[in-house]
C-alpha cells in the first residue's frame, strides 16, 4: 500500500515539518504545494527528509476561487508523472494533523482498498444554500477593481447558470482520500471539456464541489464512501472552522477520523504533543 500525501499550504513550515515527521513511514510520500504568492524558500529545508517532494508547477491559490482546483490538478498530474504506483492520494492542508498512527492508516486503507473516500451531498436537494455558488456568476478567482459591483450587475441581467454536460451538482468538504486513478479521472474529465472549466471559473468555492460533482456523475459513484475521515469543528460559525485547542483533546482522542483540522503551532502546541503521545 503506497500513499502520496498531498499538502496544500502557505502557513507555518514548522507545522508541515511536524506533520511529516508524525506520518513518517516507508510507504508514505509527501508532496508539498506552496501557494505561489508566497516564497518557497522557507520550505526548501523540508527536502532533507526522505520521501518529501516540493511541487514545482505551483499555482497562485485564491480563496474560494477556481485556482484552488487548478493547483490540485497540477499536483495530481505531477504525482502521476513520477511513475510511482501509488494506491491512494490523501489530500490535506498545512493546518491538518493526524489523529492516528501511520500503521493504523495503512491497515485502514488496505482493508478498504477499492473504495474512495470523499464527503458529498446533493446541492439541489440537501445543500441548498450552496446552490447560488453555481447558479450565479462569481469573480472570486479575480482581483480587479470593481469586481463586486460588476458581479452584482451581471447577476441582475443574466439568467441563472446551469451546469454543462447535464451534471447534477454535489459537494461538501474539499479534502479527500482517492485512488490515483480516480483522482486522475476528475482531472482528465474537466480538462478535456474547456466549456466546463470556463463554467467552474465563475463559481464560488469550486474546491468544495468539483470533485464530488464529477465523481457522483460517473461510474465511480458506487465506490464512493461518504466520509473523508476528517475531524473538523464548525461550531465557531462562519466560513472557517475552529482552530483546535487542548480543550478538544478528548474528542480527538475518541474520534474514528484519521486527520483533524485546523491546528496552529502558535495557538496550542501542547495539543500536538498530546496527540503524538497517543
Automatic annotation (TrEMBL):
Protein's membrane topology: Single-pass type II membrane protein
Leader sequence residues: none
Primary localization: endoplasmic reticulum
Gene Ontology MF terms: metal ion binding; protein xylosyltransferase activity
Keyword line: Disulfide bond, Endoplasmic reticulum, Glycoprotein, Glycosyltransferase, Golgi apparatus, Membrane, Metal-binding, Signal-anchor, Transferase, Transmembrane, Transmembrane helix
Any one Pfam family match given in the protein's UniProt record, by short name: Branch
Domain of life the protein comes from: Bacteria
Keyword Metal-binding: yes
Subcellular location: Endoplasmic reticulum membrane; Golgi apparatus membrane
Any one GO cellular component localisation term in the record: membrane
Keyword Ligase: no
Matching InterPro entries: Glyco_trans_14 (IPR003406), XYLT (IPR043538)
GO biological process: chondroitin sulfate proteoglycan biosynthetic process; heparan sulfate proteoglycan biosynthetic process
PANTHER family hit by this protein: XYLOSYLTRANSFERASE OXT
Name recorded for this polypeptide: Peptide O-xylosyltransferase
Amino acid at each position: 500500500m503506497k500513499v502520496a500525501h498531498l499538502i496544500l499550504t502557505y502557513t507555518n513550515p514548522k507545522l508541515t515539518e511536524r506533520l511529516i515527521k508524525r506520518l513518517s513511514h516507508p510507504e508514505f510520500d509527501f508532496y508539498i504545494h506552496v501557494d505561489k504568492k508566497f516564497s518557497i524558500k522557507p520550505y526548501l529545508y523540508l527536502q532533507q527528509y526522505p520521501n518529501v517532494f516540493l511541487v514545482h508547477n505551483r499555482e497562485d491559490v485564491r480563496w474560494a476561487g477556481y485556482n484552488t482546483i487548478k493547483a490540485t490538478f497540477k499536483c495530481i498530474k505531477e504525482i502521476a508523472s513520477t511513475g510511482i504506483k501509488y494506491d491512494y492520494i490523501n489530500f490535506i492542508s498545512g493546518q491538518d494533523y493526524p489523529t492516528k498512527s501511520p500503521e493504523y492508516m495503512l491497515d485502514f486503507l488496505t482493508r478498504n482498498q477499492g473504495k474512495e473516500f470523499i464527503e458529498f451531498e446533493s446541492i439541489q436537494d440537501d445543500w441548498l444554500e450552496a446552490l447560488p455558488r453555481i447558479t450565479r456568476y462569481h469573480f472570486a478567482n479575480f482581483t480587479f477593481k470593481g469586481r463586486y459591483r460588476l458581479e452584482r450587475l451581471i447577476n441582475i441581467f443574466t439568467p441563472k447558470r446551469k451546469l454543462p454536460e447535464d451534471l447534477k451538482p454535489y459537494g461538501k468538504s474539499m479534502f479527500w482520500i482517492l485512488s490515483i486513478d480516480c483522482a486522475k479521472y476528475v482531472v482528465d474529465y474537466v480538462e478535456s471539456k474547456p466549456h466546463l472549466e470556463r463554467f467552474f471559473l465563475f463559481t464560488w468555492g469550486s474546491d468544495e464541489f468539483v470533485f464530488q460533482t464529477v465523481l457522483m456523475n460517473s461510474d465511480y459513484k458506487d465506490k464512493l464512501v461518504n466520509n473523508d475521515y476528517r475531524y473538523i469543528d464548525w461550531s465557531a460559525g462562519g466560513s472557517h472552522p475552529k482552530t483546535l485547542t487542548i480543550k478538544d483533546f478528548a474528542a480527538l482522542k475518541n474520534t474514528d477520523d484519521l486527520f483533524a483540522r485546523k491546528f496552529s503551532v502558535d495557538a496550542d502546541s501542547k495539543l500536538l504533543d498530546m496527540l503524538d503521545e497517543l
